[in-house]
Amino acid sequence: MTSAVAIGATTPHFPSFDRLAAGADLPDGDALALVDLGDVALNELCAAAGESRDRGRGNVITFSPKVFIPLTRVCRDFCGYCTFRQSPGEADDLYLTADQVLAVASAGQRLGCTEALFTLGERPEQRYSEAGDWLTQSGYRTTLEYLSAMCRMVFEKTDLLPHGNPGTMSRRELEALQPTNPSVGIMLESSSPRLYEAGGPHEFAPSKRPRVRLRTMELAGELGIPFTTGILIGIGETRTERVESLLAIRDLHRRFGHIQEVIVQNFRAKSDTPMADTPDAAPDELMWTTAVARLIMGETVNIQVPPNLSENYERYIAAGINDWGGVSPLTIDYVNPEAPWPQLKELERRTREAGYELRPRLPVYPEYFANGSPWPLPEPLKEKLLRLTDQNGYVKGGTQRYARND
Ligand code: SF4
After folding, report:
1. pLDDT of 14 strictly over 80
2. What are 332-389's pLDDT values in tens digits?
């Protein structure tokens, strides 16, 4: 690609798209300067991001066949956009029982799923005595302790691999998940402190303070745990703040190499929330941010846009993504229940028509375990990963193994 806009030649603070497409590093100042370009150069930005993706990730776009296990929807926090959280009086189940968890995981295995995504409310026992009582009666002190036990059960009794996404985690809690979780995750959402000021979406959500989320990510890096994170766009942050969030993620990745994946998720307003009247994130905002995420994170880090939150999701391939994230043939997206997953055949068709091959992956990417990867995953975990995957580290059988489900 030859950039039609020779921006770097005339404006020294703007990066040259040709240089970026060729794999040049994007210094912090240059990344921030992209904001000043506005949408004038959106096509050039996307072209550079797409070239970077092609060079680093080839023509494969991945997804993770998963089941979504909402271990508890009770949460100590209140985010302005959330319909996932429930108070004890609203919840059918304070926590899913071990039998319920195993039933979902086993059903997912029969459909060819390989990821058990545990998404749950943040430490509900710290706000609600009902949650604390349930845990005590079940033999656990904390939600994270119960999560760890459920991950172990799924790891030992099924072919699925847990991916814990429980909110903030301490070193001890991460260490407890590490033997069974080939990766864990927490969305940074935004590094902007403005979002937890009065009236902001995180005013009543102490766990959304950027400092504590970045600390969880840092601890995972120190422990060598492959990590999924991302940003949520359209919740009141500016483009500059998005770039700052991505730079904070990149800083951690440069220190530890553990950021396996960055999700760029678009906000969608939901009725019955304080942000019901906030407009959805616009497609061009998602396009711009995705391309910037690719250019900041570089050509090898996996960049994901969820396909169930956009009508024409295939357009984000042109902005440099190489992953669609978890897609389930069994369970809904409990965080966005109004947004069904695409059928696999449709996802494959749209991916193919854009010129790429769809492949299923595990909740950890091949570079962390396959082809003699030196990444230090626990040995029993690595054995299971290798058993489930082909010589390239993708799920054995490819998309063919799901043909019967469509
Ligand atoms: S987004 Fe997460 S932390 Fe915020 S209220 Fe919902 S469940 Fe709780």
Report:
1. no
2. 888 888 888 999 999 999 999 999 999 999 999 999 999 999 999 999 999 999 999 9
pLDDT at 184 over 60: yes
- Determine the distance separating the centroid of ligand 1 and the alpha carbon of 294, expressed in angstroms: 27
- Shortest-distance atom of ligand 1 to CA 75: 8
Task: Give the chain's count of helices (H) and strands (E).
Answer: 13, 9
Q: Which residues line ligand 1 (CB under 6 A)?
A: 75, 77-79, 82, 84-85, 121-122, 167, 205, 207
> pTM, whole model, 2 decimals?
0.94
CB 232 within 8 A of CB 205: no
**Residue 378 corresponds to which amino acid?**
P
**Host H or E run for residue 21:** helix 17-21
Q: Calculate mean pLDDT across residues 68-97.
A: 96
In the reported structure, the alpha carbon of residue 205 is separated from the centroid of ligand 1 by a whole-number distance in angstroms of 8
Residue 5 pLDDT: 39
List 298's β-bridge partners, or say none: none
List, for residues 120-157, the tens digit of each pLDDT value.
999 999 999 999 999 999 999 999 999 999 999 999 99
Q: What is the mean pLDDT of residues 197-217?
A: 96
**Alpha-carbon gap, residue 393 to 23, rounded angstroms:** 25
Report the residue among 72, 76, 77 best suited for mutation to probe ligand 1: largest number of ligand atoms under 8 A from its CB: 77
Domains and CATH numbers, the chain: 63-405 (3.20.20.70)
* CA dihedral sign, ordered 189, 147, 160, 342: negative
Q: What is the dihedral of CA 394, 396, 398, 399, to 10 degrees?
A: -120
- For every residue of 235-303, DSSP letters joined together read SS--HHHHHHHHHHHHHHHHHHS-EEEEEEEE----TTSTTTTSPPPPHHHHHHHHHHHHHHH-SSSEE
Mutational pocket test of ligand 1: of 83, 90, 120, 122, the residue with most ligand atoms within 8 Å of the beta carbon: 122
**What H or E segment, with its residue span, contains residue 133?**
helix 129-138
